[in-house]
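Example record used in the benchmark description.
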Amino acid sequence: MSVLNFNRRFLPEICGWFGSWWVGLFFGLLPGFSWAVEVDRSLIPNIFAPESTPADSIKELSFLVLGVTGGIFLLVSGVLFYVIVKFRQPAKDDGKEPAQIYGSNPVEVAWTTIPMLIVLVLALATARVIAQIQNAPRPPAAIDVVVTGHQWWWELSYPGLGIVTANELHVPLSTPENRMPAFLELRSADVIHSFWVPKLAGKTDVVPNRQNKMWIEPRKAGLFIGQCAEYCGTQHAKMLLRVYVHTPEDFEAWVSSQKALAKGDPAVVAGKLIFERTACINCHSLNQTVADGRFGPDLTHLMSRKTLGSGAVLNTPENLREWIAHPDQFKPGVKMPAMNLTDPELDQLVAYLVTLQ
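Model output (structure tokens):
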């Protein structure tokens, strides 16, 4: 087959298996390869294209480590190649063992001291970067976000702003004149997850009964893609995360919209009643209703999000209807059960949910 066509639905799974940006790059360089759906290459996670202060520090350290270890590899490979060529077995070899040389103090000192110095330099450089990231001072304009990993989605709450959302982290753009980093407190509701947005920061594990911390300071507005980087169950590969970096003005507008109560259209009151009478309210929260569940995402501003199921499918009315009816077809093993509603009930429920902007 001269052309391999990959559907976009398999890209998150591939990246989840290998946990790296280079999967897309590797397949993209294969002769005759093309994507079935056009992919925005700027959204491909790439640790070598940092757009945040912590990620930039990690990239510089990685280049130092790669440079040193690459130099060692070239040196050792060169010596090995030279020895293989120089001392290869001659055609008239008599089979006798050559004279053995023992006890070269200069050589022994060299191959002991030089590796120790290399390890020391790399250890000190690593410790310096770790200290810079973990002990970073907190600017006055910094925001706090509590990130909770669930099987298989992300809960995001802003304690200082009174906002709760899911799977889409919104943060302000940081500039040298107006630093606005986001400090993240990482928690888990079930198993070990790992929070990773390669262009913004290194990966940090999300561990049950433990609160880990990290921070990001984006220097470029736009969308960044991240994912869970620790195998956490059946749908680990579809536990994606979208990070939106806004200008300060746009971030304030987003905050205002999230603080506002979701306004349901009075014409779809039948759908609201169906929502309140089903098991939806046991898992989801939604203001102005009796729903106060904590097992699933908050639905107050459901239609302001771009995807359903933590990136499993685009958030459209058609997909929302199918998600409610058969969530397992998009995300096998998903914790959300099928609601077993009739077609008229599904239509009324979806008509209500799509008003939650």
